[in-house]
């Protein structure tokens, strides 16, 4: 197979043209965007193999001259051996790993010198040359409850990663033996987790807070409402005469226990919400009620 055709570039293409074509195709065929599609996964590996050949001046020159890359299997001298060596290694998971341009995978995993240093401190030791570091963004609820995720590393390998319950922003997960191979020995992969903010849940240590709208009649008369938690929906009783910002506590419904920290609580902060459309009957009632039941909720502010 011709790597120029795989990337869709001319033989005289510049390094910038090759890199640009690679970025576009790598994102298009990335397995995280095409889960379960084996055909796309194969294309993704072909694109990586083509870029591996054309991004290196010496390899590109040897390919242009019709030479082959030697291999332990001895197929380097046969026509097409150069291409088979690299794609075969990728698909078998063996051989030397490709030197990927990690900027391509910003949307999935990000190599980061700063992140590497932070996670070194977290792991309590220096990394080895064959270790690799990535960043992965996880939705808040998946990080809080724990989840298994199938992810694709920068070299095209697909791994099943377990996000443990209570994972925090900046926490680093270690995958032993999933780093680069140097001198026949595999290093480790360190994945720093970024927890994406959630539109409902706000975290404070082990406790969670959810602002929960209630109707005027629920606030005045009391009643039962359903609220979300990271463990599922639960029913909560609203006391009669509840004001906005009244907080109801759900014991043990916050972040799960982790290490020496017990499970947190969920705080349900009530927000009284009037009907979106004006209600003439309610308006007339309030006008009448106001005449004999007026009060000043701002007296504690001094006015």
List keywords for this structure.
303 residues, alpha+beta, Helix Hairpins, HSP40/DNAj peptide-binding domain, 3 domains, four-stranded mixed beta sheet, three-stranded mixed beta sheet, 24% strand
What topology, given as strand order, has the largest sheet? Answer: 8-9-13-12
Please report the number of helical segments. 9
Helix content: 25-40%
The ordered H/E elements are: HHHHHHEHEEEEEEEEHEEEEH
Low-confidence stretches: 70-80, 89-125
Query: Class of the largest domain in CATH?
Result: Mainly Alpha
Task: Give me the CATH superfamily of the largest domain.
Answer: DnaJ domain
Name the average pLDDT. 79
The main pleated sheet reads as: 4 strands, mixed
Structural class: alpha+beta
- Report the strand count: 13
What is the general shape? elongated
Total domain count = 3
Rg value: 29 Å
Q: Briefly note the CATH topology name of the largest domain.
A: Helix Hairpins
Would you summarize the structure shown here?
This protein has helices at 3-7, 15-29, 38-54, 57-64, 81-92, 113-123, 140-145, 216-221, 280-293; strands at 132-139, 147-152, 158-163, 172-175, 181-182, 185-186, 189-196, 201-204, 207-214, 223-229, 232-238, 247-250, 266-272. The protein has 303 residues and is an alpha+beta fold. It folds into three domains: 3-101, DnaJ domain (Helix Hairpins); 108-196, Sandwich (HSP40/DNAj peptide-binding domain), CATH 2.60.260; 201-275, Urease metallochaperone UreE, N-terminal domain (HSP40/DNAj peptide-binding domain).
Provide a descriptive summary of the structure in words.
It is a single chain. The termini are far apart. It is built from 9 helices and 13 strands. It is of the alpha+beta class and 303 residues long. Helices cover 31% and strands 24% of the residues. Residues 70-80 and 89-125 have low confidence and may be disordered. It folds into 3 domains: 3-101, Orthogonal Bundle (Helix Hairpins); 108-196, Urease metallochaperone UreE, N-terminal domain (HSP40/DNAj peptide-binding domain, Sandwich), CATH 2.60.260; 201-275, Urease metallochaperone UreE, N-terminal domain (HSP40/DNAj peptide-binding domain, Sandwich). Strand 8 and strand 9 (207-214) form a beta hairpin.
